[in-house]
Amino acid sequence: MATLTKRADFLAAARAGRAGTPGFLLQARKRRPDEADPTMVRVGFTCSKKVGNAVARNRAKRRLRAIAREVLPALGQPGWDYVLIGKSGVTAERPFVALHDDLLQALARVHAARRGPQ
RNA sequence: GCGGAUGGCUGGAUGGCCGCGGUCCCGGUGUAAUGCCGGGGACGAGGAAAGUCCGGACUCCCUGAGGCAACGGUGCCGGGUAACGCCCGGGCGGGGCAACCCGACGGAAAGCGCCACAGAGAACAGACCGCCCUUCGAGGUUCGCGCUGCGGACCUGCGAGGGGUAAGGGUGAAACGGUGGGGUAAGAGCCCACCGCAGAGGCGGCAACGUCUCUGGCAUGGCAAGCCCCACCGGGAGCAAUGCCGAAUAGGACCUCCGCGGGGCAUGUCCCCGGGGCCGCUUCAGCCCCAGGCAGGUCGGGUAGGCAGCUGGAGCCCGCCGGCAACGGCGGGCCGAGAGGAAUGGUCAUCCAGGGAAGAACGGCCGCAGGGCCGGACUUCCCGGACAGAAUCCGGCUUACAGGCCGUCCGCGCAA
Asked: What is the ipTM of this complex?
């Protein structure tokens, strides 16, 4: 599992599928085969200043990282990019198990939406 | 005990499970380069890491040196410091009973400008009311005389004119010193005492300044946070600075190689023929262009990316010495984050502070009493961690901050 570092990757994920949850917003896309290593799951995190001051943003990002580490190695699909976006207030405050379930449901929706039309 | 002032420290603890960052060691593997994977060791946010407001270090750019001008900043004195707009000590002014706190605190006899409103008068001051003197008139009292009147003296809640006056009233942020006495028609530094002020001198202090004596009757209104003057300081941009390495692709330069256009049919290792320019004409030769590449190589710039800068420093701790202190000196010991979409955590449990609710032994007060009110060891349950996250590094300032701990001092009350 790698971390996204390029702005372009974030923008590409934003244009593709998305799924809102009470705790955060998930964006995801399947990469084209000629991009990065197709066996890899990549993930990025975004917490804008709307989330709060530096302490609040960092805490939100750390909690998003924690659930990503628990969930994505098993349920993330190879060749996909995932971006988790923090929400003001709730991402840092919501119970951890609820945040965990949010990601499970959001992943299911994002994957289903991608397969559906095909 | 109550109330207050001030200095310093601290900024939850322990454990389980799962993780992150650089670094060192071991093993494996790989790139143009940095690396990557597995295992292990120690280490890994703050007092403000914040605001980015001052001062520096360090880089690059500009500049021959100095001076002057402009612009910006600082502004009582002395000391500390690499430096500062910071810190310490002192002076002066203001507030407070006091501990203590606050202060853009140089210059207004260099010049310009401004001083609204109110008020009579506001910067070469000023006469509104009031007070005083005086002339005339009016009225009155009284005296005298030559007595339908005339004259003198005095008086006035009266009128008009002339003059004096800055004590009093009133206006204002401010009215050409203040208080008291003498003096005067009334007044006035007109005179005197004290205070203030100015000048000179003595003494104390490095100085800011303080103090004493003498002299002067008082000049020099305020605003410099309007311009200004004086003294001192200051070149600009910033670690996304700056230096180095450097793919792929495109483009550039050079070298080598191949090749260029038209036509024929027998389609080949074939044959025939070039045009334009240098050159006005002809021939030959040369060079250039029409006219290139799908090739190979070399080189330089440079993008992605990587490396350095990057953490050993005006460093931290302890002791001794000097200094009222800020701080300095000496000796010994220590190494304490280094990321780059950015680590230093996620989660659970228990505990310690703290808050709330319920119960409650017991104690106090009120009441004849039933009872009511207040405090409350202890028990149970619930809530529950302030402000805030390094980004080149230091010294400050400012701002934010739940709670806790330690010290010193002041006022009041009580006791001895």
From this structure: 0.74
